[in-house]
């Protein structure tokens, strides 16, 4: 039989740890690049773009559409990478805290 109070305490503990970890995600970064590294975008765990660099050769008015496409591609890759890191950080923060209840998958909460 399950100890309901123990389970509730574990859930509250996990919630507190998750909030703490979410606040610290601002320090977790990921980078995406496109055009063989000609455009690089860095994002943080709050899903904010914090930096972007581009090769000087791309700054040409005639290549405006290509530059836009490269920036979008690099940004999307950076967001894909940070999503993986966010999930890892949240999983590590709550590892072993949640009860193992058959049929309940807490792993997809993040």
Shape: rod-shaped
- Put simply, the count of helices is 2
Which consecutive residue ranges, at least 5 long each, have pLDDT under 50? Answer: none
CATH C-level label: Alpha Beta
Helix content: 40-55%
CATH superfamily: Nucleoid-associated protein YbaB-like domain
Counting structural domains, the number is 1
Radius of gyration (CA) equals 20 Å
CATH architecture: 2-Layer Sandwich
Q: Strand order across the biggest sheet? A: 1-2-3
Strand tally is: 3
Strand content bin: 15-25%
Average pLDDT number = 85
* Main structural class: alpha+beta
Q: In whole angstroms, how far apart are the ends? A: 28 Å
CATH topology: Ybab, Chain: A
Note the main sheet: 3 strands, antiparallel
